[in-house]
Amino acid sequence: MRFLYGRWDQQRERQEQLLKDLFKLFRQLLAKTAGDVEQALEWLDKIAERYGIWGEDLDLEKFKKLLEKDGEIAKDAKTGRVQLTPKGEKSLRHEALTEIFHNLDRGGLGEHRSRATGPGVERLPEVRPYAFGDDLFSISATDSLNNAVRRSMSAGEDEISVTEEDLAVYETEYSTGCATALLVDCSHSMVLYGEDRMTPARKVAMGLVELIQTRYPKDKLIVIAFGDDAVEVPLKEVPYLSYGPYHTNTKAALEMARKQLLRVRSPNRQIFLITDGKPTVLDEDGRRMLDSGPWLNPRIVNRTLEEGAQCRRKNIPITTFMVTDDPVLVKFVEDLTEINHGRAYYTGLGKLGQFLLVDYVRNRRRSVR
């Protein structure tokens, strides 16, 4: 193989790095605008103008052409609006997943594997003596030969031979299939009080979709957005999740998740609930009750907690991620967690993705002997 070397072009390197940074910034703006390409480009143009990024070689129109050439955006034939392509949607999900895992603290949150070990599909570094029925692919050749040498030397034998008692096998961990329902609160409170909670929730949803589709393709993921009502969101539509002038119908979301999960044949089922507010909506007997007062409405809360108990009876744990530490919400979540035997985290916005994705990987692992 022959290589042709030329003079190092530092200007070209800077230009390539600038493009990489612009692509990354564009995707971050897309995550903020719920996939609105034209809004993201408008914001990008203002940022570039303010900081003097555009020049003779690169401006907004040239950047748009680069995105189109790369297949990330395209003009809709019907509306004439520029929108994301499937490739652009995947790039956005990948960016969200990369950002979440890149921010994991070294030596901090991890996969938390169980101490128990047994037959499975993921090889661990530890070894143990071979037992009848162990798969041949799990045999550690190096450890087996070392055992044979030590045994032969201690016995004073001139030749080295490997017997069954010398064989050592790697421990393996069994990773199970899992069906997950991700419930995302899209009520108006997700953007009130000067704090954008919707963008982190959207990024987490995109990251979880990408994680499952790339690493656990046999797992099932159901995404449900809830406000006044609960609606299942197709996975390809997750980048466009947004808030609305809605209340919080937590019961409807839990009920839909339970029913959808029970249709899936899987050894494990779980619900992840992202919310910033107490339940304020109840649909019962064809009538709707709304109560957005400062305190918990006993009837709405009790019906929601009953749904949590229903999930427990069907072995569906609920893990709640609170993106605010409002005392009224905390009280409701504490009761829901207790009645469902689930888990709850107050993560804050910066740690939401790390907690949820790590918890997903950890929960789907099971080790058996």
Order of helices and strands: HHHEEHEHEEHEEHEEEHEHEH
Annotation, overall tally of beta strands: 12
Principal-axis shape equals: flat
Assigned CATH class of the largest domain: Alpha Beta
The count of domains is 3
Regions with little confidence, pLDDT below 50 for 5+ residues = 105-120, 365-369
Q: Main β-sheet, in a few words?
A: 6 strands, mixed
Tell me the name of the CATH homologous superfamily of the largest domain. von Willebrand factor, type A domain
Rg, Cα atoms, Å: 26 Å
> What CATH architecture label of the largest domain applies?
3-Layer(aba) Sandwich
Task: Report the sheet-strand fraction.
Answer: 15-25%
Give average pLDDT, whole number. Answer: 86
Derived from helix and strand composition plus strand pairing, the structural class reads alpha/beta
Strand order of the largest sheet: 7-6-5-8-11-12
Helix content: 40-55%
Can you tell me the CATH topology of the largest domain? Answer: Rossmann fold
State the distance separating the first and last CA atoms: 51 Å
Question: Helices, strands, pairings?
Answer:
Blueprint: H1 10-32, H2 37-50, H3 60-69, E1 73-75, E2 82-84, H4 86-102, E3 122-129, H5 141-154, E4 168-173, E5 179-185, H6 198-215, E6 220-226, E7 230-233, H7 250-262, E8 269-275, E9 281-284, E10 287-290, H8 298-313, E11 318-322, H9 327-340, E12 343-346, H10 348-363
Parallel strand pairs: 5-6, 5-8, 8-11, 11-12
Antiparallel strand pairs: 1-2, 3-4, 6-7, 9-10
